[in-house]
Fold this sequence. Notes:
This protein is an alpha/beta fold and 436 residues long. Among the domains are: 5-127, Rossmann fold (3-Layer(aba) Sandwich), CATH 3.40.50; 141-256, Transcription Regulator spoIIAA; 380-434, CATH 2.40.50.140. The protein has 15 helices and 19 strands. It has helices at 15-29, 54-66, 68-73, 83-89, 91-96, 112-120, 135-138, 168-171, 180-192, 214-222, 243-251, 268-273, 280-293, 312-325, 351-374; strands at 5-11, 33-35, 44-49, 78-82, 102-104, 125-127, 150-154, 156-157, 176-177, 197-201, 230-234, 258-260, 298-305, 329-334, 380-388, 394-399, 404-408, 417-425, 430-434.
Amino acid sequence: MTEPKKLFIKTYGCQMNVYDSERMAEAMGGQGYTQVDSPDDADMILLNTCHIREKAAEKVYSELGRYKGLKAEKPDLKIGVAGCVAQAEGQEIMRRQPLVDLVVGPQSYHRLPELEAKTREGKKALDTDFPEEDKFNHLKSRPKAKRGPTAFLTVQEGCDKFCAFCVVPYTRGAEVSRPSQRVMSEARDLVERGVREITLLGQNVNAYHGHTKGLAGLIRELSTIDGLERIRFTTSHPNDMDDELIAAHGECEKLMPYLHLPVQAGSDKILKRMNRSHTAEEYIRLIERLRNARPDLHMSGDFIVGFPEETEQDFQDTMALIEEVKYGSAFSFKYSERPGTPAAERPQVPENEKDDRLQRLQALLSQQQRDLQDAMVGRDVHVLFEKPGRLEGQMGGKSEYLHAVHVHAPDVQPGDLRRVRIESSSRNSLSGVLLG
Ligand code: 5AD
Ligand code: SF4
């Protein structure tokens, strides 16, 4: 028997890349590769990259530079770049870093085995097409190995929204939904392998149209799978949050009361320039409707500070929106100029101004996050346990609101879903006791 070849994948960026990396590892399994945790004695290194902000893209080049020594020691080592930097920069990557053998865009992963074979013939391989066929359909189905209690499942990819700051419509292409039958069979397979919670992924997941009744229809159908206890989805656009999906938050027990719904900014002037196609008021009314359907809904969001021409007053409008919504968690970023996007052409906000606004915004968001977490003390939640904690006999998992919870529970297994009374709140997690 031949020795399995070793594949090291390093994943940057969003959860969709995490999912894609898993699928690429499986596809390469068919080529005799097993996945390893270190690049040191790998036969192939694959960087699954992110292009969303400048820093993310630059990290890829500095990481590639670090592999020079490895490649010198082992000339047979193949180095590949996948993901959104691959899509955006294509051939340029090989020019800038000649030790790269393979470049593959996010819509071409099913061609990875052929591309790898080409590199073994000593050639460079590049594929950044947007082929007609569904890459997931062509990737080998997942092998039956046992899985942890939570999993991501990509149901939609790409984006047609063209927010003025964002590269996603260019790197991931137009919106495409996977048919619901395929999603259902992948979900059943995951559940058979031990998964209890599935997070449906899409750049614009609530625009999903692979089911006649949209994302709400898919969620309701997934709810019928025995053994699947929890459903989440991310990321959504406010304009695609239809009545059916709002209603599902109130009616669908397995749909968790936590919603990531980015608004980016609170000033109507900036929202317009961002091409978001909604106002701050419309966003706030939407959250009211969602909270009417599900009063305990925890909100999460994304914010950008220092978008071109953002004034202090515009920034204050964002702070006011945050005060009104009260977020359970949030991600916030300084605006980063992305070549080829309309906002990159506009007058920029000075860096020190961006730093200052980000600091103030994050202070407010952290305070809200902490307040909402502290407010859980004394309440009963359900925890899906995932893995042992640091202390003897301790188990850790997540509540329905996605808070990390630790409990002394030596008999509890990963995958168990139990009721817990929360007793205390620390910086990043809650502690409690098992009930019953
Ligand atoms: N600069 C800063 N943040 C950005 N995002 C997307 N593009 C940019 C950019 N050019 C943020 C948005 C989006 C999240 C995934 O990344 O907040 O929701
Ligand atoms: Fe980018 Fe999201 Fe806007 Fe699409 S909706 S362009 S992915 S920020």
